[in-house]
Amino acid sequence: MEVSVDHLADRRDNRRYEIRLPLHYRVSEKGAPPRSGSGTTCELSTRGLSFRCRRALPVGTHIEMTVDWPPRYGDIYPIDLVMTGFIVRSMGGRTAVRVSSRKFRVNAAEVSYQATA
Asked: Is the pLDDT of residue 26 over 80?
């Protein structure tokens, strides 16, 4: 009987997508001031996210993330993917998060208008 190792190696329920996008985060740890930073996404699914950043982040802490989404609403307004969750792994500059909430946000305030005459 042959068993495929590839099938056993990845037991995730949701498909992961390799996407490289800018990300900003804020980590909230009990009894400590919030820490913020930036990084780049590696993999994204409906229930998880991994990203690279310069420092290891504390496992088990709450994290808020904002991903700069490439398309624009109406070809004008920037869109962010806002996610919250808990850090499940952080080592070697790569952090994995179990996502508990996600939503898209349109940033109409970031668009500057220029008058034309």
From this structure: yes
Q: Which of 65, 8, 71, 9 is nearest to 42 (CA)?
A: 65
Written as six digits, the tokens of 69 are 């989404």
Q: Are 67 and 78 in contact (CB under 8 A)?
A: no
Task: Tell me the per-residue pLDDT of 60-101, one tens digit each, with 9 for 90 and over.
Answer: 999 999 999 888 877 788 889 999 999 999 998 999 999 999
CA gap 25, 56 in Å, rounded: 13
Total-model pTM: 0.78
Residue 62 tokens read as 């709450």
Six-digit token string for 97: 């998060």
Please report, for residues 26, 41, 72, 85, 98, the alpha-carbon distance to residue 48 in angstroms, rounded to integers and kept in the order given: 17, 11, 23, 9, 5
Structural domains in the chain plus CATH codes: 13-107 (2.40.10.220)
Tokens at 95, concatenated: 């952090």
